[in-house]
Specification:
heterodimer, A: alpha/beta, Rossmann fold, five-stranded parallel β-sheet, 5 helices, 5 strands, B: alpha+beta, five-stranded mixed β-sheet, elongated
Chain lengths: 125, 221
């Protein structure tokens, strides 16, 4: 069975392209554009992996990461960002992310990052 | 007819210069970086669907993807140089630590960073101290020949003190002053604009120390 992915980014073009990329290997169960929608969709859909952009319009993606890993602990979070900054990377892992991917490397790095994240997941309740 | 305010003071010119750098940085980050992300993603899709393509086509796609990532990395470095967005997001101490980590990696120099209790300054003072640290580290890397430097940011008797010290070749301060070296002039100007005191000490063969002191309470005024 294909793993189920929830995808969050506020850039519509990128969100559509990421969905097409991930649907080649997984099933994207929903795409959302805000942090509030990530939290709601994650509770309802119980995805295996949640891919979150750091810069969401309503709530910082790292805050969402912390909240969603507490609310849906079996889901693994992959943080996606345009910011090549070791401090942001460190904060992403502190917030509970299982992997960190730079957006301009998404084509090469996102699927391997999701695989790494899946390898650390706990069984669903 | 447009009316325009004449920028008559050096402070206004400097402020306009920073605003323009910020605008360019945001444009690079918000527009071009997003388009590169889209390009990288589409290349990822293409790469996954190339199983029946010739080795040459696969190599070309791999090269284009690697080049896209390389441009993305360069773009971020340029945008960060124009306006260090991390300053607003992280604050002065972590932004300086991050800059030092990247400079150390890129230039193969060991840089120790000591951060004390760093108070929150206003953005103008924060940016001024950050630019002084950048310029001092640039000089360390470019001129000192040092393999080791240290950067500290501490609060001492009501002043925030930035210190950048290297253990390199040093220079004769009088000679350098008489030449009006751009790096020194730039640091002095930055310090003047944020009402900081700048002390540069150096001797040939004994390394260099750059120290900027800014009263903490002033930044809240």
């Amino acid at each position: 069975m294909r793993e189920r992915i929830l995808l969050a980014d506020d850039n519509t073009s990128l969100l559509t392209a990421l969905k097409r990329l991930l649907n080649l290997s997984y099933t994207v169960v929903s795409t959302v554009r805000t942090g509030a929608d990530v939290l709601e969709a994650a509770r309802v859909l119980q995805p295996d992996v949640i891919v979150i952009d750091v810069r969401l319009p309503d709530i910082n993606g790292l805050v969402v990461c912390r909240q969603v890993t507490a609310a849906v602990p079996h889901a693994r979070v992959v943080v996606l960002t345009a910011v090549d900054d070791p401090v942001v990377e460190q904060r992403a892992f502190e917030a509970g992310a299982a992997a960190f991917v730079l957006k301009y490397r998404a084509g090469d790095d996102l699927i391997p990052a999701i695989e790494r994240a899946l390898a650390t997941r706990m069984p669903a309740p | 007819m447009h009316s325009a305010r004449l920028l008559t003071t050096e402070d206004d010119v400097e402020s306009a210069y920073e605003r323009e750098r910020t605008r360019l940085s945001l444009e690079l980050h918000d527009d071009i970086a997003q388009r590169l992300a889209l390009l990288s993603t589409e290349l990822g899709i293409l790469h996954q669907q190339l199983t029946n393509a010739t080795a040459e086509v696969q190599e070309i796609v791999t090269w284009v993807a690697a080049e896209t990532a390389s441009i993305g990395s360069d773009l971020y470095r340029i945008a960060r140089g124009l306006h260090p967005a991390g300053l607003e997001r992280l604050g002065l101490g972590p932004a300086i630590r991050c800059y030092c980590a990247q400079a150390a990696r890129a230039r193969r120099i060991a840089i120790d960073v000591e951060l004390g209790d760093v108070p929150t300054l206003d953005m103008e003072a924060t940016l001024g101290l950050y630019r002084i640290a950048q310029e001092a580290l640039h000089n360390v890397v470019k001129h000192s020949g040092a393999s080791h430097a240290s950067v500290s940011l501490t609060t001492v008797r009501g002043e925030l003190v930035l210190q950048v010290v290297d253990f390199g070749v040093g220079f004769d301060l009088q000679t350098m002053r008489s030449k009006h070296t751009l790096g020194l002039v730039s640091m002095r100007e930055r310090a003047r604009l944020v009402h900081a005191r700048l002390v540069v000490s150096s001797d040939p063969g004994r390394g260099t120390s750059v120290e900027a002191r800014i009263p903490v309470r002033q930044s809240f005024a």
